[in-house]
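Dear colleagues,

As part of the handover before I leave the project, I'm documenting each prediction I ran so the next person doesn't have to rerun anything. This entry is a single chain, and its sequence is reproduced below.
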Amino acid sequence: MHSQRVALVTGASRGIGAEIALQLAHPDIHVVVGYRSNTERADYVADAIRCAGGHASTSAADICDETAVAAMIDDVATRFGRLDMLVLNASGGRQYCTEPGPAMHQNRDAQRRLARLALPLIPVGGRIVFVTSHQAHFYPYKAVPKGYASIAAGKRAGETTLYAMRKEFDRHGINFTVVSGEVLSDSAVDFAAAVADAATSPGHPAIVYVSGPEHLTRQPA
């Protein structure tokens, strides 16, 4: 049995997911770098985590593929016997999901399925963190960048679906936090650090806002 805490970060071979995985680098944490197909990039992230003094491995799965996701969770169970932190990070372009209706499948259906599959592995006090953008969190109340509406709708639906599971999370003693940041921002490191903090801190609010203009992060009337 591994004494380290175990974190699984989905979509961790690139972008904000990769930065989140790097922010989790710590001698007491083993980071599973989840990715769909780019083995080279996932290996690079895992190597960087090790170079930073952490522990890491990679796990390939299209999160829209139920069989592949089940195999990924089974692999985590076999290797570690637990999953202390599940970071649900997905963006949802058509190129990242093989099923029809990619944004909704990836950001709602796949996230819900992955959370349910992971529940038996997450101990009391464990954490599930859903990564979203301000544009998705406030959708449809705020304007979104051109071409982003379907992704925003999918991520908003994913957030709503996971909120609906909070009673189930509570029964398992699992904490759930949403971290929302700018979809187009120069502060990716700050965003990733906030996600890592939400995953590792003993206590956290239900929603964390990272950067962004005040008018955007204000709750809709």
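Residues 5-217 form a domain with the Rossmann fold fold (CATH 3.40.50.720). The CA atoms of residues 2 and 80 lie 6 Å apart.

All the best with the project,
I.
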